[in-house]
Amino acid sequence: MTGDRGGGSGFSKKLSITAILFIVYSLWFVANSASAEERLIEVKAKKFVYTPNIIKVHKGDTVKIRLISEDVHHGFYIDGYGIKTSAHPGQEGSLKFTADKTGRFSIRCSVTCGALHPYMIGHLYVTPNNLWLWGLLSVIGLGCISFIAASRKKQQDEKLKLFGIIPLEWRFPLTKFKPVRALLKSRWFPLLPIIFNLFVFVIILMAGFVGGLSSGNYNFGVMIVWILWWVLLMMFMVPLIGRFWCMMCPFPLIGDWIQRGKLLTVGRAKSWGMGKRWPNKWRNLWPLVILFWVSTWFSGFFTVKPFATFLLLGTIILLAIIVALFYEKRTFCLFVCPVSGFQGLYSNFSLFGVRSRDQEVCKKHAPKTCFVGNEKGYGCPWMEQPYDMNRNTYCGLCFECFKTCPHDNMDLVIRPFGQDLFAERKRTDDIFNRRSTDEAYKALTMVGIFLSFFVAFQGPFGHFKDMVTAKTFGGYIHYLLESFAIDFLIIPGSMFLFVYLSKLASKSKEVKLKDIFVNFSYCFIPVGIAIWAAFSLGIILPNGSYLLHIISDPFAWGWNLFGTAKFPWTPVFTGVMPYLQVIVTLIGLVFALDFGYKFSQQTYKNVDEAKRGWIPILIYFVLVHIFFIKLFVG
Amino acid sequence: MKNKVIIITLVFVAGFLGLVYYAIMHSRGIPVKIEKIETPVLAVPFIDTRIDLSKDISLNTWDTLSGKEIKLMYQVMVLPWPKAVVPSVLVKAFRTQEDIYFYVSWKDDTEDRTHAMNQFSDACAIMFPLGKEAQPSSIMMGFIGKTNIWHWKASQDNEYWQGAHPKTDAYADFYYPFEEKELFVVSKQTPQSAVSDLLAIRVGTVTSKEANAIQGRGFWKDGAWNVVFKRPLKAENIEEDTGFELGKKRLCAFAAWNGSKDDRGGRKSISDWVELDIK
């Protein structure tokens, strides 16, 4: 396929697709243009599901809800409409409204009814669901644009540019500002944020410890960790700053002290650690792929029950200490901490990175104090080689290299999103078998885990919530098997199918299937960040108001420290939330499509192979995103 | 070094497991040591003495018997809340060849024998579970299963033994335990006894039996009520009357009403089960 022919066929395809979509929309509109009527719907509420869990009405219908509770006091709040009722057992709640807004609206329990209360959800469909339609059209439209843009390529890009605008190698060193450099060279940084976090986590652990099995939405530990921290992590820290959380995580503090005998100053006053070396074959993301997946087995407990949160955090802290006793430096953070893997992988997308300013200075400098340490600081605790580091995966932003570099040759840079994804391989990547199926599976399992989390915590399916929370042993085993199948078989399998089609379409005989699989799997990094951010919106906007309660009464002892203990549950912007979720998901797709063709160029040897090989992958990501849009608003 | 590391590891693990154990034990709140309360046993000996209630209640006979001080608690209710609990009743019992007698005594500063508007009678009752399996707690009269209740009321005693007429024809029996739904029985019958022989199977089902074989009488003296119940040993109707089989144990519970503290209907003090040892 030549560039000219590609462009021409693209234009005709665009016209065809537009015509088809117009017809589809017309049919859709006719199908949903029913006359308004009065609908009486009896809804039974029971921990933690509504029956029916999905209500469908037409725009203009007068909807009467008769709410009956079958166990405890339950509420019934409709996102977007902002109206609610509640029912005690034996008494009814009622609601009457005109369905004048279209789309899918979540129905939420507005009365704390038990552990899974924040996730007691139903769906109200008011047809026609225009948002779903526009989301669908947008995905297809973006796919068409990407196809046309790729078709017009006549040669391989000499210089990679984000969206064809910003050169990917562009960097701006923030450390050119003296206060920033002074801050990063200070031994108090990042120790002070770590100590602050330590204080917060002591309260979190205490709240988890004394909170027992009470409802998580009124517990400081559960709310701070699973509502605030998780949302900040997935929406801001990881996509923007990378391993920002690792920088100030208090968990390795005791291990550091055990190994160094000091916290602030430099030296090895007394070490109790054995300083063993982590095995080479596990010096990649595979341990973290497995450990994070295993930790999600218990998501139905530790996200809702204070004691389970205490148990999880306590176990992680204990593991951090034990690993520090046996293994060198931050082995725990690199290869054991369950939340380290996705932070490391996703931080390759982030705006920030620590890089050496002038490679020539580093080449001449011996010994490499950033790696071995000196009197100003420790050799890289994350066992990176800061002097030629070109990816964020294993950089914990501890800034020790700023302290140890006698030439002030380290910079904290701002760069375009995804710069690291196109970085050249290093020797260590081959030695430790990194940047291979480990990162591919990390990216893919994060999508699978998102699916499980979304269905369990933002879906209307009571039986799945029962499975996740192990209401029955058989159901729980079913959930684990389902999770394994989705994460390790179905998603990678579907990807592999399109990778195989990509190889066939490219007509390339040299490129290995594994390389195509690995290279294109990096498209799931912006996609993963986007869908997790969209998921996080569904956590923080409906439930964020509980934070005001728990900061005033962290241990549920009746305190009112800041006068907000009585603040009622107040969902915020849940009416526009589906729109935000669609936008965020589409942003992920935009990045995936932009990166995808670049990966195709890196994978295949010439532009024609790259263009042909890209088409099945493009279709795959369009289909995947149609599914995501369906999940969020369809 | 290796041993030191292992010891430190074990210390941390043991410390964490200790915390986890403590948290598990406290995960549903602070554990409270609950002492197992032994069910009090009231002996029902054989005494060849017959009490003629039309004359008196023969306190001399009762003085020769040892009794049981049975603790009472206030009936669990949503509203209204209790004004005063009758802390305990002294109970005694014996049987003859034909009859069984119960003596119930409790402290009460006022003798409330009148039933009128906002004026309530003192009373006491004995409840017997019917059927083979009684629930583990008496909770409230008739709440948990089929029961036979002997309900003595000072006002009814006044009417039956003294021939006194109620102050008003309007009459409330307050059978239903919730005050806002008190049932007013408009056609009041002349009492056959100072004791009502009642049946109940759950809340709101207290019903007077047609046949009443129970007699009773009470006297207030020196700030205390002394009430005696009497019924033939043999049950006329085993479905509705309490059976007393010799040599076998049987459960019962006691209740007392303090009329001057607005007790009536469900507002009363009740005991847990008491075991009768009928000899």
Please tell me about this protein's structure.
In chain A, 53% of the residues lie in helices and 12% in strands. Chain A is α+β, with helices and mostly antiparallel strands and 634 residues long. In chain A, the strands form five sheets. A five-stranded mixed beta sheet of chain A has the order 3-9-8-5-6. In chain A, helix 4 (191-211) packs antiparallel against helix 5, helix 12 (340-346) crosses helix 17 (437-458) and helix 18 crosses helix 19. Chain A is globular and about 80 Å long. The model of chain A is unreliable at 1-8 (pLDDT under 50). In chain B, 14% of the residues lie in helices and 29% in strands. Chain B has helices at residues 2-26, 59-63, 154-162; strands spanning 41-44, 68-71, 73-74, 88-95, 99-107, 123-129, 147-153, 195-200, 207-208, 215-221, 224-232, 249-257, 269-270, 274-278. In chain B, strands 1, 3, 6, 7, 8, 9, 12, 13 and 14 form a nine-stranded mixed beta sheet that branches. In chain B, strands 2-4-5-11-10 form a five-stranded antiparallel beta sheet. The longest helix of chain B has 25 residues, at 2-26. The radius of gyration of chain B is 24 Å and the shape is elongated. Chains A and B meet through helix 10 of A and helix 1 of B.
CA-atom Rg of chain B in angstroms? 24 Å
Derived from helix and strand composition plus strand pairing, the structural class of chain A reads alpha+beta
| Tally of separate helices of chain B | 3
Low-confidence stretches of chain B: 175-183
- Class per helix and strand makeup of chain B: alpha+beta
The N- and C-terminal alpha carbons of chain B lie at a distance of 77 Å
Q: Helix coverage percent of residues of chain A?
A: 40-55%
Question: What spatial form of chain A do the alpha-carbon principal axes imply?
Answer: globular
Under CATH, the topology of chain B can be stated as Immunoglobulin-like
Low-confidence stretches of chain A: 1-8
Strand fraction of chain B equals 25-35%
Q: Would you report the number of β strands of chain B?
A: 14
Determine the strand fraction of chain A and express it as a percent band.
Answer: 5-15%
